[in-house]
Structures are given as structure tokens and as C-alpha cells.
């Protein structure tokens, strides 16, 4: 049973009787499913520093990104799912993600590199020279998606092809159509409203000698051990406060 369902079925009914405000529990730290998207053919490929954002929001994150057989994963995606957990839940996990394959590059920067290469090395085949050390398979995929034949030289790139390639490098659009199954979910977002818990003791502000810790609280973080630490710290505070 997913963690948020355990809270909803086994814990929330009891807490509700205590008249505490409960933030509905929902999944956090999950990966994005992209069924039918050809990018899944690159499964196992990782990009060291990508930037991914959710269209229509200010939610974004950067870092390593991994392409899997079901979609995209990796630290950048997991952390973005934590920041966007409630928004994605409201969207029923249907959204548009936009990826820049090199976080240090702007749209103008990508275009300048391509045009510079076209001017300096017009006879070189595009597929043989991945820009900014992008993985070969990703580069070949992106030029194909841009309508560029594998035998095309840089010198023969049209303005339209360059524009398409820049768009796929800087803002590759990925349609999210779901998240991973519960076995892949690490954390639950939601639980008892933190405003109703003494942060120094973890004691209920309404009921003396009732203490809370860990997942039962509306407290979740990104990957990197923060959720373990939150559980240990709140548990330690609650334990010490009972004496």
C-alpha cells in the first residue's frame, strides 16, 4: 500500500478525531511517465546538468537527469516532483515539462554555437559532433527530431533546421502522463498542519502529552537524506519531550 494511503486509511481518521487540521496526504518524490514518447528509446542515458521546468508554473530544478523505459527520472526530476507535488496532484499528473539539456546554455547561446560551427566547419557532419559534449545518442535523437538527416553537413543546415534544433536543445517539450507506481514513491507530502504542533517538543497544541513525528506531519523534503533527517529529528524531539 502506498505511504499516502497508509496515512489516509490508518492514521488520518484517528487524527481527525483530535480536531487537528489535516493536509491531505499525496505522493512526493516520484518520476515522470511519458508513454508513447520516442525519448524512451534512450533509456539508461543520463545527462549531467539539465534544467527541467513545469510549463505554466515557476517550478523548476536543475541537475542530473536520467531517461528510463517509462519516462524521465534522476535527481532533477525527483526534486522537481517534491516542489511540485501538490500542483501535479491537482493536474492529475498531466502536465508539460520543458527541458534545457545544458543548464549553462541560453537559447541564444545554443544558436550561437550552432551558427559558429556552421561557419568554421561547414563540411563536418552534424551527427558526428555533439555540441557541449552531449551524449551521442541524445544528440542523434535531437537532430532527428529537428528534421535533420543523419548525413547533413553543418554547412547545409537551413535556418528552419537550426531553429528547430535550438528549440529541441533549449526547450525540449515532454508531455507528462502520469507518475511512477507506488513502489517507486519515497515520501508523502501532507499530514498534520505544522502550525498545530509545537516545533520545540512536537507536542499537539490542543492535546497535552500527544506528540507527533515523521510522516504523520506535513513535512517533506527533496532527495539527499532530508526526509530521513526530518523523521529522526522530530522523533528525537518527541521522545525527549515525553520525559
Automatic annotation (TrEMBL):
<protein>
    <submittedName>
        <fullName>Aminoacetone oxidase family FAD-binding enzyme</fullName>
    </submittedName>
</protein>
<feature type="domain" description="RsdA/BaiN/AoA(So)-like Rossmann fold-like">
    <location>
        <begin position="12"/>
        <end position="240"/>
    </location>
</feature>
<feature type="domain" description="RsdA/BaiN/AoA(So)-like insert">
    <location>
        <begin position="27"/>
        <end position="187"/>
    </location>
</feature>
<dbReference type="Pfam" id="PF22780">
    <property type="entry name" value="HI0933_like_1st"/>
</dbReference>
<dbReference type="InterPro" id="IPR055178">
    <property type="entry name" value="RsdA/BaiN/AoA(So)-like_dom"/>
</dbReference>
<dbReference type="InterPro" id="IPR036188">
    <property type="entry name" value="FAD/NAD-bd_sf"/>
</dbReference>
<dbReference type="InterPro" id="IPR004792">
    <property type="entry name" value="BaiN-like"/>
</dbReference>
<dbReference type="InterPro" id="IPR057661">
    <property type="entry name" value="RsdA/BaiN/AoA(So)_Rossmann"/>
</dbReference>
<dbReference type="Pfam" id="PF03486">
    <property type="entry name" value="HI0933_like"/>
</dbReference>
